[in-house]
Amino acid sequence: MDIGALYQGEGRCLFRVWAPRQDGVSVMLAAPDKKTVPLRKEGRGYWAATVEGVPPGTSYKYLMNQNQAWPDPASFYQPSGVHGPSAVWDHAGFPWRDAGWALVGLKDMFIYELHVGAFSPEGTFDGVIKRLPHLLDLGVNAVEIMPVAQFPGGRNWGYDGVYPFAVQSSYGGPDGLKRFVDACHARGLAVILDVVYNHLGPEGNYLGQFGPYFTGRYQTPWGDAVNFDGEDSDGVRNYFICNALYWFKEFHVDALRLDAVHGIYDRSAKPILREIREHLDAFSAQAGRPFYLIAESDLNDTRLVEDISARGCGMHAQWCDDFHHALHALVTGEESGYYRDFGRMEDLIKAYREGFVYSWKYSVFRKKYFGSPSLEIPGHKFVVFSQNHDQVGNRMGGERLCHLASFEAAKLAAGAVCAAPYIPFFFMGEEYAEEAPFQYFVSHSDDSLIRAVQEGRQKEFAAFQWRGEVPDPQSEDTFVRSRLRWDTVSVGRHAVMFRFYQALIQIRKTVPALRECDKKAVSVFGLAGRVLQLVRSSQESRVVCFMNFSAREEIVSPQEAGAAGCFFKKLDSSDMVWQGPGSSAPQEFFGASHEALALRPWQFIIYERREDEAENREDHP
Fold first, then answer.
1. Which 3 state secondary structure label does DSSP give 113?
2. pTM of the full structure
3. What gap in Å lies between CA 468 and CA 399, rounded to an integer?
4. Phi then psi for 568, rounded to 5 degrees?
5. What are the residue ranges of helices labelled H in 252-385?
């Protein structure tokens, strides 16, 4: 059931709202024709009416039981913020230019995550558009933006949104997002939008005035859970299904990233995630092109990405936190919080082979057995990273990896991500070793809520035993500190790191053995010390990577690479061209050889053997 203020053209608008426990609902319209129009009851809790003389931009609220008026839960635009009236929006009026857009396959994506407010000096969609040449130069082909649903104030991570259909007004509103998507498609960039279906923010959250959107049957870190399986939950489910399709239909986004789905409590025979996937499949068939759903979950439950036919939820991919934790613990040496469960070479080895490290294995941090086996899950169903907004911003100081590890170790981490048989993901600024932190920021208007957020952040860090002062989330300075410093991109080590990321991405795109997300074509070994040898193969080529997760030089005897012949060096992080200390690793590596190899601290090397080149050398000695 379509909901919201559905503009029909020529000043006609269909208003439909779900309010199952109300005896009467009216729409209160502002100028130019100020009036109140009763809605008719449609059944199953829906109220609707088509009203004449309602041009786009008309402000309105819903009046219930002649008592109090509230903004539309499915508002498309909140020009005056979360407490103001909703506004009618004409989605058909935007001049799209992306009719010929051809989406790259999910398995071929290089995803770049950014925060609209902190990415550019303007803090808007138009500001991001100005910087798209930087992303094209880097080599990524998909841009993921953190949530843009209307939130209180002008600065927020976006996970406190309270109008899931309304695009944040300070970012540029609905047309600003459409201009951004259109500009990305014109440049060959896919767009992934982060959406939040596990909770709504506390300030400006009026959904409970309309119906049982929330339930006390389950508790989440944000309070009562969204009511996906209780009484009158059909309208709640319809609300979020409509929202998912809304972004694909009206904004032409290519994929949704569903935030923290472990916070979605649903014991229905058909989970809401599976139902969203079913509706998306129908929409995709109608549109004639694919769209994707990428989930975040900390449950290590393969049912999330298993096919619907196998009783899974059918998500196309999910974030793999275990890969991050295993890599981060080796690179930084951190042992507190959930990093207590990681730090061994075998953890990263298992992450390369399977995906999940914890696959019904005892977790010291969680104090229980945890996770499901993921060996049979295809590689293209996992997204991996060395940094993201959570792993940076949910640190006490918002430190990036370049603050926690050496320049050489940061290059190694980037190489480890690009060499994995999964979808690579990068967080804004990491590609040039951005030194500005990314800290948690809000702009609430309620003093008691501000204090609660400040105190909550203090408690969150207790398990990590971090020292120092917690940045004030409410302070504008916290937000300003988190903005990217574009003047450093082409300077010194920042420029070197950017070129290193460029080289990694180009190699990943052009080397056949690295291009495919095929876990079955992966062999990985732990060598002496803290050295990992990764072998990846395809019909066209074979690759050997060496990674030294040690602060000292290691002398190792490589394992056989699965093929005789000569492998040629493609990239070496210790080379002086990358401001490394210089490398003693040979330019050629012989696959059947056991000759000792000397690796610099934190060194990352890629060797490749092309099958066609090998055949030519054999035919023409």
1. strand
2. 0.97
3. 12
4. -105, 140
5. 272-287, 321-332, 345-353
Reported as a single tens digit per residue, the pLDDT across 253-276 is 999 999 999 999 999 999 999 999
pLDDT tens readout for residues 98-141: 999 999 999 999 999 999 999 999 999 999 999 999 999 999 99
Tokens, residue 386:
């060395």
**Count of helix runs (H) and strand runs (E) in the chain:** 16, 31
Report the CATH fold assignment for 4-93. Answer: Immunoglobulin-like (2.60.40)
* Residue 338 half-sphere exposure toward CB, CA atoms < 13 A: 18
Closest CA to 33 of 115, 98, 112, 88: 88
Pick from 80, 65, 109, 75: nearest CA to 3: 75
pLDDT band at residue 1, thresholds of 50, 70 and 90?
confident
Residue 202: phi and psi, rounded to 5, are -80, -35
Is 259 known to be catalytic?
Answer: yes
Closest C-alpha to 605, from 579, 584, 619, 620: 584
Instruction: Reduce the DSSP state of residue 454 to 3 states and report it.
Output: helix
Residue type, position 267, single letter: R
CATH superfamily name and code, 521-619: Golgi alpha-mannosidase II (2.60.40.1180)
The strand pairing partners of 107, in sequence order, are none
In eight-state DSSP terms, residue 614 is H
For domain 110-195+378-510, give the fold. Answer: TIM Barrel (3.20.20)
Amino acid in position 368: K
Residue intervals in the chain for CATH 3.20.20.80:
110-195+378-510
Confidence of residue 612 (pLDDT cuts 50, 70, 90): low
Among the listed residues 259, 306, 431, 608, the single catalytic one is 259
Alpha carbons 66 and 84: distance in angstroms, whole number: 19
**Model pLDDT, residue 31:** 73
CB 476 within 8 A of CB 155: yes
Single out the catalytic residue among 144, 160, 296, 431: 296
